[in-house]
Design a protein that fits this description.
Blueprint (H helix, E strand, L loop, with lengths): L12 H7 L2 E3 L16 H9 L8 H10 L6 E6 L3 H11 L5 E5 L14 E2 L3 H9 L3 H20 L4 E10 L2 H18 L8 E3 L1 H7 L6 E2 L2 E2 L2 E10 L1 H15 L2 E4 L1 E8 L6 E8 L5 E11 L5 H8 L7 E11 L9 E4 L8 E6 L2 E5 L3 E2 L10 H12 L13 E10 L14 E7 L2 E6 L5 H16 L25 H7 L1 E5 L5 E5 L2 H11 L3 H10 L14 H10 L5 H8 L2 H4 L1 H19 L3 H16 L16
Parallel strand pairs: 2-3, 2-13, 3-10, 5-15, 13-21
Antiparallel strand pairs: 1-20, 4-9, 5-9, 6-9, 7-8, 11-12, 12-13, 14-17, 14-18, 14-19, 15-16, 16-17, 20-21, 22-23
């Protein structure tokens, strides 16, 4: 039976009609109260947050997947290790189901590491809801604001509230944005982060010294500051995968699905043929239901089941650039809701730098998307009009492109009118696809996908969904002051070129970084820095330590140099040149952990160098800088 639902401007009737499948738009099939109480939650918390807990080895995880046979299949196999896939694995395993997850590259290798870094309800969508009297859009905002607070609460070391300043250049804009953002506060209700407020021109200049007082001959009349959430997206994703592993899921990165397995009648998907991309070995894994969370690549998985399937994805490119910290003050973002061409532009402090963006344009789906020079120039042009500092192309430390997997509405004329809500469908029995949505709502997307999987496979979970109240690994017991323990009790022992070991101070910058990146597990990294003489910094001006390479290889499934510089740390995103200089030492430590020979180390250097070429910093981009020089 086909289930259809229209929400806002999104219509998926065509998709359902094409496959005779089920389509659900944020409509859980199973309520949270369908399965007993919270009796498993405390046991789960103890298991995940046990001080001595370590994730199973990669070899052990692969053995579990390979052992899932026709007569003893997994309940759920998730394809895709992004935010939604990792979230689905965590959701399913914490309901008592047997779960596997495979990811072709690395956790967060695609869209999930290339986001805007914001956890938001969608101010623009609230505006559309009000002016279009669109209850669907309003529900999206309401739901996203609820999820925003839950993400922050469940990973407090990786997420925080961020004040965002909206400049006003007329008194009408002051009133308009003040009322609009007060409505945003009101809709958030008990999930409110902080109350928005108006600041005068002088107060605004004190809070954001680089903000221009005049734009296009219009004088600044003040600003309205409201709050949204900010995150370290890739590390949050890795935390999801590791939490799922600790809870009992068999998660395997660098493992690619090469084909889907069908039953004897060819009427249902019952498993997948998987290739370990690190060894080249292939094996079959059987599962009662497969959840396709491939992000922009989910259509390629669906075509393995039915080569004539209609595409669901409308890929949209989002480009971001990284600028030095002096472009924006620490702890205050700048968001212009509507530039002269109608786009949103922002500048946000992030990990000691400034991230600016973004573009939103149709694109093709590629493994390593690259930003085009005109997109970088567009961002520079857009922000230069709102700043009193010279905006230079030479200041771009890194630039990257991410592909947003937006759900298709055949009647939409551009990607702005395509809803960011998610779609869950089962267009081939045994294959549940989840796509669309955004980072902020990954948890409820995963919940909906698992609900659909339970219905499809007639699974019997032992509890309801508990992920709305389960902190990720490193989050339980963490406090903003936790870094002081590292600073006071640990030393960074550093090995010199001559082989001599000298002590170094665990300074506040390094201690804060470790605490925010690893939460309560930061002491494990500090122990390695102290006891194994891996306390040196990997790059000048950055707090990343050699010890992190060893820790991530042992405890976070870090299998390549790119895994480390892009997703276990964010060095590739923050400064391409610094990441390139750190590579030899990163590879040396990984070689020691994974027993790589010289040929493998050379291969890793080549792959990582090629990866960094896709990040168009001023050092590796070919451009003719006429405007921003």
């Amino acid at each position: 039976m086909t289930r259809l639902r229209k929400l806002g401007t999104v219509t998926v009737t065509a998709i359902a009609a094409a496959y005779g499948g089920a389509v659900v738009l944020h409509d859980p099939l199973i309520s949270a109260s369908d399965y007993g109480g919270n009796y498993r939650l405390e046991a789960l918390r103890k298991k995940v947050h046990d001080p001595g807990a370590v994730v199973p080895t990669r070899e052990a995880q692969q053995s579990v997947l390979a052992a899932a046979c026709k007569s003893n299949p997994l309940d759920v196999l998730v394809i895709g290790g992004g935010a939604t896939g990792s979230g689905a694995a965590l959701d399913a395993v914490t309901r008592g189901l047997s779960v596997g997850l495979v990811e072709r590259e690395d956790f967060a290798a695609g869209t999930s590491s290339r986001s805007t870094k914001l956890l938001h309800g969608g101010v623009r969508y609230l505006e559309k809801a009000v002016f279009n009297l669109d209850y669907g859009q309003f529900k999206l905002v309401l739901h996203a604001l609820e999820e925003r607070k839950q993400v922050i609460d469940n990973a407090p070391h990786l997420c925080h509230a961020l004040p965002c300043m909206t400049p006003c250049f007329s008194w009408f804009e002051v009133v308009y944005y003040w009322i609009g953002l007060k409505m945003y506060d009101l809709v958030a209700g008990r999930q409110l982060l902080h109350i928005s407020r108006y600041y005068s021109t002088k107060e605004s200049a004190d809070l954001f010294p680089t903000l221009a007082r005049k734009v296009n001959d219009r004088s600044l009349r003040g600003t309205v500051v409201y709050y949204d959430g900010q995150m370290n997206d890739a590390r949050l994703n890795v935390g999801l995968a590791c939490t799922a592993a600790l809870a009992g899921a068999a998660v395997l990165n660098h493992a690619e699905v090469v084909s889907l397995l069908k039953d004897d009648d060819g009427k249902r998907i019952i498993g997948a043929r998987i290739r370990d991309n690190l060894t080249g070995n292939e094996f079959d894994t059987y599962a009662k239901v497969i959840v396709n969370a491939g992000g922009p690549f989910c259509d390629s998985i669906r075509k393995m089941a039915n080569k004539n399937v209609q595409q669901m994805i409308s890929p949209s490119s989002g480009v971001h650039i990284i600028l030095p910290d002096y472009y924006s003050p620490e702890g205050m973002g700048l968001i212009v809701p509507k530039t002269k061409d109608g786009r949103v532009v922002f500048m946000l402090p992030w990990l000691g730098k400034t991230v600016a963006g973004t573009t939103d344009s149709s694109t093709s789906i590629t493994f390593l998307p690259e930003p085009h020079e005109d997109e970088i120039q567009f961002i520079l042009d857009a922000i230069s009009g709102y700043l009193n500092v010279k905006v230079r192309r030479a200041d771009v430390l890194s630039a990257w492109s991410g592909i947003r997997p937006l759900a298709v509405d055949p009647t939409a004329k551009n990607t702005e009118s395509i809803s960011r809500d998610h779609v869950v469908c089962e267009d081939y029995p045994g294959l549940v696809t989840i796509t669309g949505g955004k980072w902020t709502t990954y948890r409820s997307m995963a919940e909906d996908a698992v609900n659909a999987a339970i219905k499809s496979g007639k699974l019997t979970p032992t509890s309801r969904c508990v992920t709305n109240n389960l902190r990720l690994v490193g989050g339980a017991g963490w406090e903003p002051s936790s870094f002081t323990v590292l600073a006071q009790q640990y030393t960074r022992m550093k090995s010199t070129h001559s082989g001599k070991v000298v002590p170094g101070v665990m300074d506040s910058a390094a201690a804060r970084h470790l605490s925010h990146a690893y939460g309560t597990l930061a002491e494990r990294v500090a122990c390695i820095a102290q006891n194994e003489s891996l306390g040196k910094r990997l790059a000048h001006g950055y707090p990343y330590l050699e010890a992190e390479v060893a820790y991530c290889a042992r405890s976070e499934y870090c299998e390549s140099a790119v895994d480390f510089i892009a997703r276990r740390t964010r060095l590739a995103f923050l400064e391409t040149d610094a990441a390139r200089k750190a590579l030899p030492r990163v590879i040396e430590i990984l070689a020691n952990e994974h027993k790589w020979d010289d040929a493998k180390q050379k291969e890793e250097l080549e792959k990582a160098t090629e990866f960094l070429r896709t990040f168009k910093s001023s050092k590796n981009a070919k451009f003719h800088d006429g405007k921003h020089n």
